[in-house]
Amino acid sequence: MPLPAREPDAATLAQAAERAAGNLLAPSAPHRLADVVPAPRQVQPDPTEDWTLPAEAVIVATADPAALAVAEQLAQLLRPATGYPLPVTDATAPEPAGGVALVLDDTAGLDAEGYRLDITTDGVRVTASTAAGLFYGVQTLRQLLPAAIESPVPVTARWAVPGGTITDAPRFPYRGAMLDVARHFFSVDDALRVLDHLARYKLNHLHLHLTDDQGWRIAVDSWPKLTTIGGTTEVGGGPGGHYTKADYTRIVSYAAARHITVVPEIDLPGHTNAALVAYPELAPDKVAPPPYTGTEVGFSYVDPANERTYEFVTDVLREVAALTPGPWLHIGGDEAFKVKDEVYTGFVERAQRIVADLGKTVVGWHQLAPAAHLDGRVLQWWGTNGEDPATLDAVHRGSRLILSPGNHAYLDMKYAPDTPIGHDWAGLIDVRKAYDWDPGTHVAGVPAEAVLGVEAPLWTESVTSLANIELLLLPRLPAIAELGWSPRETHDWADFRDRLAAQGPRWTTAGITYHRAPEIPWSANPSIPAQRNLPQTDTATP
Fold first, then answer.
1. DSSP strand pairing (174-180 vs 205-209)
2. What's the pTM?
3. Residue 48, class by beta-carbon neighbours within 10 Å (0-12 exposed, 13-18 middle, 19+ buried)?
4. What is the spatial distance between Cα 78 and Cα 489, in angstroms, rounded to a whole number?
5. 460 contacts 180 by C-beta, under 8 angstroms
6. HEC string of 382-422?
7. Rounded to an integer, what is the distance from CA 494 to the centroid of its chain?
8. Per-residue pLDDT tens for 181-201?
9. Which among 65, 184, 213, 295 could bridge 461 via Cys, Cβ 3.0 to 4.6 Å?
10. What are the start-end ranges of the H helices in 176-244?
């Protein structure tokens, strides 16, 4: 015999009455339900259902470890600024009850990365079929709260959220950014900060360019001199550095907790001067070149005629693959100018088979296109002219594309002639140029279904600090994120620039560097909210 429902006690009834009265008397939420980047697929606002986060709110999630992990992440996002305890609990059938419910439901008819966000005066419900979908719903909820939510310390604010329903899912499965840690080396903490920026805008891949002429950045036990010798230089003659296997694992784990897949790149056969300094036996003339700290390209390559080269490639890729749970291994393949065409093609075909034998899917720059197709192969297209017969032929043979057009998506390009860092070989890229192109139609003849997604690379020849990274990433990274996530029919520059402008106060509050692009109507004087004297909750994560 079922037990009778428990009657709420007087204190609970009083809190509910106080909350309802407050919602009736309070002004509307300070922004619209659609004020989100990337633009959601479907938005149904209901101004009568605005919700305010109460101090006694509880975050309740489906009794599943993955759902509870997202609930803890949400609590960690909200506790510092609110000062609220926000306990996390689980339930078989989570209900908001004035707080937030995170519901895993594989019968809800939502895409794998999709979610539904329902906001009413009774609380917030995020429904998804996967933990990734829940995580993306949380990122949307984060943006719907006032910008003060980004404060690292408690502040005075009314935590109001606009009412209604958002139903959302991504356009493309691959949405990423690349960080070049070879030209200049960046610490683990810097890489984690970049991952936070990707997570905020629902990007799900971080491509790490780990090797180049200027430095080798990943430890390989079977070839230790790659880091002890090859990792000690960088552009301009700095000390370089490298990731130990534990460092790399930390980055991969931090990414996975944010539903981001790390894509490691070992650039071959060119861009290998640092490897040749360490192991001259791999050089065509068996002579160690001097360390290189400049920025030219195309002069170095491992010897494709030497069987020892393929032992090297196999050993390196095996060790990197063992550290990388994601499906991708990126083998570079660009700018091997001194390797003859047929020799280059033969090298690539052997390297592709090595990747396949390791159980991974090969990714490479679009220069791999002439090589024989391997099942699942992905080409990363970085051209500046949408006419590319070789890449189109590779697509006809089964290759898929990641779109990274140099004149739209390369975030190391300057915004304007006076940008203090960056390049301009692919042209100047202001925010509108980063936003105004369509990955589904960009390469002539390539159908949208052959496009796996988009990626925004950041090469670091001129980038020497985290502040430099953020200056070039923001505000262009959200533009690329919107191209990867949002339906094409939502694409609207005027609307995007207004939604993007609302991100500025969030970045300012969080202490994030960004370029105040003149084409965006930023707040004239973004302010940091007043702090409250409350004990800081420890929200550290491993």
1. parallel
2. 0.93
3. exposed
4. 32
5. yes
6. CCCCCCCHHHHHHHHCCCEEEECCCCCCCCCECCCCCCCCC
7. 24
8. 999 999 999 999 999 999 999
9. 295
10. 188-200, 225-228
H/E segment holding residue 505 = helix 503-510
Catalytic residue among 319, 335, 387, 470: 335
- Phi, psi angle pair for 386, to nearest 5°: -70, -5
Interatomic CA distance for residues 436 and 429, integer angstroms: 11
List, in sequence order, every residue forming a beta bridge with 126; answer none if it has no partner.
102, 117
Q: What is the DSSP string of 510-534?
A: HT------TTS---SS--PPPB---
Dihedral angle, C-alpha 347, 351, 353, 358, nearest 10 °: 170
Both tokens of 318, joined, read 């095996």
pLDDT band at 26 (very low <50, low <70, confident <90, very high): low
pLDDT band at 13 (very low <50, low <70, confident <90, very high): low
**How long, in residues, is the chain?**
542
Closest alpha carbon to 168 in 192, 195, 144, 134: 134
Distance CA 282, CA 287 (A): 9
- Give tens-digit pLDDT for 289-320: 999 999 999 999 999 999 999 999 999 999 99
Triad 349, 353, 359: Cα angle to 5°: 150
- Nearest 5°: phi and psi at 511? 75, 30
Beta-strand ranges (E) seen in 269-376 are: 328-332, 361-365
| Residue 307: predicted pLDDT | 98
Q: How far is CA 371 from CA 71, 242, 270, 397, in A?
A: 46, 31, 16, 11
Both structure tokens of 341: 């065409």
Assess whether 265 carries a catalytic annotation: no
Q: Are residues 36 and 485 in contact, defined by beta-carbon separation less than 8 angstroms?
A: no
Structure tokens at 508: 């300012």
Separation CA 113–CA 171 (nearest Å): 10
CB atoms within 10 A of CB 359: 9
